[in-house]
Write a structure and sequence with these properties.
The complex is a heterotrimer of chains A (about 150), B (about 260) and C (about 800).
Chain A lengths: L1 E7 L2 E7 L5 H8 L18 E4 L2 E4 L12 E3 L12 H8 L9 H14 L5 H7 L11 H13 L1
Helix pairs in contact in A: 2-5
Chain B lengths: L4 E3 L4 H7 L4 E4 L5 H6 L7 E4 L9 E4 L2 E5 L4 H6 L1 H6 L1 H8 L4 H4 L4 H7 L6 H7 L3 E4 L3 E3 H4 E3 L2 E2 L7 E7 L3 E8 L6 E10 L2 E7 L6 E2 L1 H9 L3 H5 L16 H18 L1
Parallel strand pairs in B: 1-3, 2-3
Antiparallel strand pairs in B: 4-5, 5-10, 6-7, 6-10, 8-9, 11-12, 12-13, 13-14
Chain C lengths: L13 H5 L15 E7 L5 E7 L1 H5 L3 E6 H6 L31 E2 L5 E7 L2 H8 L3 E6 L23 E8 L1 H9 L3 E9 L11 E7 L4 E6 L4 H11 L8 E4 L15 H13 L3 E4 L2 H7 L6 E9 L5 E11 L28 E9 L14 H19 L3 H8 L6 E2 L5 E2 L4 H11 L5 H10 L3 E10 L7 H6 L8 E7 L5 E5 L8 H13 L6 E4 L17 H27 L7 E4 L2 E4 L5 E3 H9 L3 E2 L2 E2 L11 E6 L8 E10 L6 E11 L6 H21 L30 E5 L16 H18 L9 H18 L1
Parallel strand pairs in C: 1-12, 10-11, 14-15, 20-21, 29-30
Antiparallel strand pairs in C: 1-5, 2-4, 2-6, 3-5, 7-15, 8-13, 9-10, 9-12, 13-14, 16-17, 18-28, 19-20, 19-27, 22-23, 23-24, 25-26, 28-29
Helix pairs in contact in C: 9-10, 9-18, 14-15, 15-16, 17-18
The chains are: A alpha+beta (about 150), B alpha+beta (about 260), C alpha+beta (about 800).
């Protein structure tokens, strides 16, 4: 067991956790932030993407103890004062989600894209989302939503 | 995943002291953690080396580019120094895994793991890299020994990788449609002393294709590639690609790389 | 109030899903829950000699280790095949026993042998390694083609043959073929797929010793069916003591229609140990043990006249149903496949003969399209070949054989109520700029790429109905749907449906329907589904049935609400019932300004009397309350149809093939929410293109699953697709009052032949799915060789 201190969605948290607990387990089981999903647990599907110090990573493949002192944003922390993030709004407007399981990771990944590239092309969006698998949407409305969000941000 | 003791030393020496035959150094963890989860590996001690400051960073000095072992793929991809000195290396880093893997995976981790389909080993070979560890310098062509095998000793830590800046270079990858690792990846680098054509994905370990290298040393053009026979013997054969297909793709992607140089 | 039907209403369920507030089964936790980990067979076929749990039972944190012997001692029944198929010779199909935990034999890699239940998942998993199973490994049967000539897997099932089924008339077909100018023949493999819903299957069962009730949370498309099977067949608990809740479900595509061993075992174990038992599949378990899809080997022939008129069709198929007969495993390659195999064409004579075989692979069951993609792939590649061999344009040969009069009695089973296939294909050719293809082909060639174009015209039969007919054909369940419309006293509405969304957007589409019917604002309507204790029994979501069957049940329940509302309004407004009209949420007495809103009527129904200002006595004999239930059993299937045109580019140097242009024109009858329908088409296309170019389930000769992770099973990603061009035509269905037809499976049905026809058009050679880079490259090289030899 190790003591870790993290800032999660703006709140400072100190917890004792097992050395081998990955971040997705910590978020879901210790903090009950179940919006971060686990689809493959081996860092391919992207359902577990969160931001660590402003960058998107796959939380299933990061040890919590490895992130001592980091600032973490999960899907639950993206909306501010009850208002959804423009990316979330765009996904809703353009039907960028169906079952919603891949969605938290997809949204977190897309938000990171716009930090790096304010006006991405369709191709750039599709390539960026390489690490996020969606089985429902055929991706088309996701790409449209990311473009829509880019135009609003 | 089986339990283990996690350590986060601040100095290389401390890390080495913690190491044993039942330990692993953890950098990005992009392979180590999934392997532990799938039960393919388990360790008593997991030693995080990302806290060791001197292992990260990018520096150009004279004819070489030196990248610290814990430098992340995204950092290499976005680095102005790398883009300026060896743009093909930045492009290679940009093509590894996906953005989240690039935000966490490291160059040292990649080459220490030596996955037969990883990208970086081909860069090391093509760019006459020297692997600096806590105890010695190793030439890339001696470093990679076989599938998931390097000449690193227990407790030996890669500190940095020093690449020779080539006159021209390019890396072309044909990704596996499922994993997006290389079915074949070909790194062509033209140095003063000759051309290297390093291939990954095709065999159990990345290698320098001597025939292609010498043909291109004599005549640096895609037509020179055309006349070289690449043998499928010893090449990987799996559900994604037969040896024969891989052999052909080595040529196709060598040509593409030469043309893009 | 403007009608909501037909408008692009943003989904009501999205906010929770987008903000991380969705609740999936893996998110459900109970106090004191224990964790289950399954010991699975590492062998494709073996006898179990001994299961030694002594070490595992003593391991840290272990609560119980349960085996096949325990399940049999407790008389827990096996998993079932839900549809009885009879062979051509009249005999019943043969199915092996399928115990939730095996005790005598294991029959595929991943088959369930024991379960370890512990205080933590780590402890359960570690202890599972200590369960020692002594196997006698037997030779596995893996190949679909060779299954009938291989070792016999089950004592009582000769040739591993489940059934040998015939639909159609062999003699008539022979006559037709005798008259043919030409017979076109084709041999196909419909590649096996792994559904891969992004949410892995999961279960969490809680037993309440005081009420003796089990509450099972599970990833189900169909919680009511899960309850009746786990209760009536597995015998875990009486139906009234078993509550099944499927909360948010993260995709299913068929793979979550039916209950699996894990749900049975968790429910049974929770009762046994009197603790909640939670299980969540890891992705490897999903690959190994979710039911797979497709896996046919087909020989088909088409008899044609020289002018392209179709005379007859025959289809000889071997369908691999895996190690056990899963719930819909037997209907998928028969009644869902055979009738549609003649395609969207006039076909004077036809038969489909299907031999279903057992193999030592995971069970195969319904997967998006279920039988109809296999049927459409067969006929549409055959038709394309006919066009090639007759030197006709692929569009022309299709047009020539389309029926134009509706209702149309299709050759084998279906009476198709409505359709307009000519308009559909014309529109596809226009939207997809069919004429401009040659120009685009030249442009591709200038970049060294081979461009090909492929067509697919399809029809499909979905929303299986009516129940008496499907039961006569062997179905063990009804296929009607229920709805309960409950007005709350304050005038807002809860609609319970027996259908269950796992991504389709029921909360929105169904609310649109109810809002229109009742004249209540959509934000005042809540759709409730997925909990057997809340709404009436229903049959869930699969087979593109939710809207046509479940949506109609809502309409019918609303009709009953309105009828009662009229009686109550008449009393309150002192008018004759026949003079009360209902529109836009108001009951109005004809030719007067007397009216009551539906909210006022609801309030009156709950306060039936006089109290202060409330004056709302009900008509004599009228019951208080305002809640109506409807069970709707449609008179027929619905028959969506359409034409898709795909263009691909092939890099002849590498064989890499990309879809570069895709046009889909579909007729789904009346569309309730175009936003949702377009999403369904996009998703179906991605899965269809996935089957054609990328996805393939591969077992090696010993029955090990080689494609058991995302490292080896190619899941289509965003960069594999272009934007799709969609369009619609509309001939309303006559079998439901909304005029709707199912839309969920169309993309997965139409895309594989459209893509493969395009690939074959590009490279000029027949090639099997998936058209992977190496296969295409080889085909290109062989062509080059043939061409240079010819020169």
């Amino acid at each position: 067991m190790k003591k870790v201190t993290l800032e999660v969605n703006g709140k400072k948290i100190t917890k004792e956790i097992q050395d081998h607990a990955v971040l997705s387990v910590f978020l879901r089981e210790v903090l009950n932030l179940t919006g971060t999903h686990v689809g493959c647990d081996t860092s391919q599907c992207g359902a577990c993407v969160v931001h660590v110090d402003g960058k998107s990573i796959k939380s299933c493949t990061a040890l919590t103890v490895d992130l001592q002192g980091s600032k973490i944003t999960t899907i639950e922390g993206l909306a501010k004062n009850g208002k959804m993030h423009p990316m979330q709004e765009a996904f809703k407007k353009l039907h960028g989600l169906q079952c919603g399981f891949c969605t938290p990771g997809m949204v977190m990944s897309a938000v990171d894209l716009l930090k790096n590239n304010k006006k991405p092309s369709d191709t750039e969006i599709r390539e960026w989302l390489e690490g996020n698998i969606c089985r429902c949407t055929g991706y088309q409305n996701i790409v449209a939503a990311v473009k829509e969000a880019a135009s609003k941000m | 995943m089986k339990t283990f003791n996690y350590h986060s030393p601040k100095e290389t020496k401390e890390a080495t002291k913690l190491a044993s035959s039942n330990s692993v150094f953890l950098a990005g963890g992009m392979t180590t953690i999934p392997s532990m989860k799938l039960g393919l590996a388990s360790y008593k001690d997991v030693i995080n080396i990302k806290g060791i400051k001197k292992l990260s960073g990018i520096k150009v000095s004279g004819k070489t580019l030196k990248i610290g072992a814990t430098t992340k793929h995204a950092e290499v991809a976005q680095s102005k120094e790398v883009k300026k000195s060896i743009p093909s290396l930045a492009a290679l880093a940009e093509g590894i895994g996906d953005p989240q893997v690039r935000n966490r995976g490291t160059i040292g981790g990649s080459i220490a793991n030596n996955d037969p389909a990883a990208d970086y080993p081909s860069a090391c070979i093509a760019l006459n890299a020297t692997i600096h560890t806590d105890r010695r310098k190793i030439d890339a062509d001696k470093f990679f020994r076989g599938m998931f095998e390097t000449c690193l000793k227990t407790g030996e830590i890669i500190e940095s990788i020093e690449f020779e800046i080539p006159a021209k270079s390019n890396y072309q990858k044909f990704p596996n449609p499922a994993s997006r690792y290389a079915i074949v990846g070909v790194y062509v680098a033209k140095h003063k002393g000759g051309v290297n054509v390093a291939v990954t994905g095709a065999k159990s370990c990345a290698y320098n294709d001597k025939d292609l290298s010498s043909a291109l040393t004599k005549n640096f053009s895609s037509s020179a590639v055309q006349n070289v026979r690449v043998s499928p013997s010893g090449m990987n054969s799996d559900i994604h690609a037969s040896a024969e297909y891989r052999a052909n793709m080595v040529k196709v992607f060598a040509k593409k790389a030469v043309e893009a140089c | 109030m403007a009608s909501l039907v037909g408008s692009r209403v943003e989904r009501k369920e999205d906010k929770k899903l987008l903000t991380g507030r969705g609740k999936y089964t893996a998110d459900v936790n109970f106090v004191n829950q224990a964790y289950a980990y399954f010991v699975r067979s590492p062998h494709a076929r073996a006898e179990i000699k001994k299961v030694d749990i002594s070490k595992a039972s003593k391991a840290s944190g272990v609560v119980a280790v349960l085996t096949g012997a325990d399940i049999s001692n407790d008389k827990i029944g096996g998993l079932i095949a839900g549809w009885r198929i009879k062979s051509e010779d009249g005999s019943d199909m043969k199915v092996p026993a399928h115990p939730p935990l095996a005790s005598e034999t294991v029959n595929y890699v991943g088959d369930h042998v024991a379960v370890v239940i512990a205080d933590s998942l780590d402890e359960a998993r570690n202890a599972a390694e200590l369960v020692k199973v002594d196997y006698k490994v037997l030779k596995a049967v893996v190949s679909t083609q060779d299954a009938m000539n291989s070792d016999q897997i089950y004592k009582d099932i000769p040739k591993n043959l489940c059934f040998d089924w015939l639909l159609g008339d062999r003699a008539k077909v022979k006559e037709a073929f005798d008259k043919a100018d030409k017979v076109i023949k084709i041999d196909l493999i419909n590649n096996r797929l792994i559904p891969n819903a992004m949410e892995p299957r999961a279960a969490n069962a809680d037993y309440n010793p005081s009420t003796e009730e089990i509450t099972l949370y599970t990833t189900s498309q169909n919680p009511h069916l899960a309850r009746i099977i786990i209760s009536a067949f597995n015998g875990v608990a009486p139906e009234n003591k078993l509550r099944v809740i499927a909360p948010d479900v993260g995709g299913g595509f068929g793979s979550k229609i039916y209950p699996y061993a894990e749900e049975v075992v968790c429910s049974w174990a929770a009762k046994k140990i009197e603790r909640p038992v939670k299980w969540v599949a890891d992705r490897t378990e999903s690959f190994l043990s979710d039911c797979h899809g497709r896996d046919h080997v087909t020989h088909a022939e088409l008899a044609v006249k020289n002018d392209g008129t179709f005379l007859g069709f025959k289809n000889e198929t071997i369908a691999n149903i895996g190690a056990y007969a899963s719930v819909f495993a037997t209907v998928t390659p028969t009644y869902l496949f055979g009738p549609c195999a003649t395609g969207v064409y006039k076909m004077p004579a036809a038969y489909s003969n299907v031999k279903a075989v057992f193999t030592n692979t995971a069970p195969v069951d319904a997967y998006r399209g279920a039988g109809r993609p296999e049927a459409t792939y067969t006929i549409e590649t055959l038709v394309e070949k006919a066009a090639r061999e007759l030197g006709m344009d692929p569009a022309e040969i299709r047009m020539k054989n389309f029926p134009t009069q509706f209702p149309y009695q299709q050759t084998l089973v279906h009476s198709v109520d409505s359709g307009d296939y000519v308009t559909g294909l014309n529109k596809a050719m226009e939207v997809g700029d069919y004429k401009g293809f040659e120009k685009r082909k030249k442009e591709s060639a200038s970049r060294g790429k081979l461009r090909g174009i492929g067509l697919c015209s399809y029809f499909e039969a979905c929303g299986i109905a009516p129940s008496p007919v499907v039961m006569m054909l062997g179905c063990g369940i009804g296929l009607w749907e229920s709805a309960e419309v409950r007005f709350n006293p304050t005038g807002n509405v809860t609609v319970f449906t027996g259908s269950h969304s796992h991504g389709q957007g029921h909360d929105t589409t169904f609310a649109q329907i109810a809002a229109d019917q009742l004249g209540v604002p959509i934000e005042n309507i809540e759709i409730s589904h997925g909990d057997t204790d809340k709404g009436p029994f229903g049959y869930g979501t699969y087979g593109s049935r939710s809207l046509t069957v479940g949506g109609t049940a809502i309409v019918k329940a609303c009709d009953k609400i309105i009828a009662k509302g009229k009686r109550v309004a008449a009393k309150m407004l002192e008018a004759n019932v026949d003079d009360v009209e209902f529109s836009n949420g108001e009951f109005v007495v004809a030719k007067s300004n007397k009216k009551k809103t539906i909210g006022e009527i609801a309030f009156a129904c709950y306060l039936p009397g006089t109290y202060g200002e409330v004056k709302s006595p009900l008509p004599e004999g009228e019951e208080p309350g305002l809640k109506e239930t409807s069970f709707f059993d449609p008179a027929n299937f619905s028959f969506p149809a359409g034409s898709h045109i795909c263009e691909v580019e092939v890099d002849p140097e590498t064989g890499e093939t990309k879809v570069v242009k895709y046009t889909a024109i579909d007729d789904f009858g009346t569309i309730i929410n175009p936003l949702v329908v377009e999403g369904q088409v996009h998703g179906g296309l991605a899965q269809g293109i996935g089957q054609a170019l990328y996805e393939n389930c591969h077992y090696d000769e010993s029955g090990q699953l080689v494609t058991a992770s995302y490292m080896d099973y190619t899941m289509p990603r965003a960069d594999n697709f272009p934007d799709f061009d969609l369009g619609f035509t509309c001939t309303p269905a006559t079998s439901n009052p909304l005029g709707t037809k199912g839309c969920g499976e169309a993309g997965a049905i139409a895309a594989p032949p459209a893509v493969m026809n395009a690939v074959m058009n590009a490279i000029g050679t027949e090639i099997s799915m998936p058209a992977t880079a190496e296969k295409v490259w080889k085909a290109c090289n062989e062509n080059k060789k043939t061409n240079s030899e010819a020169a």
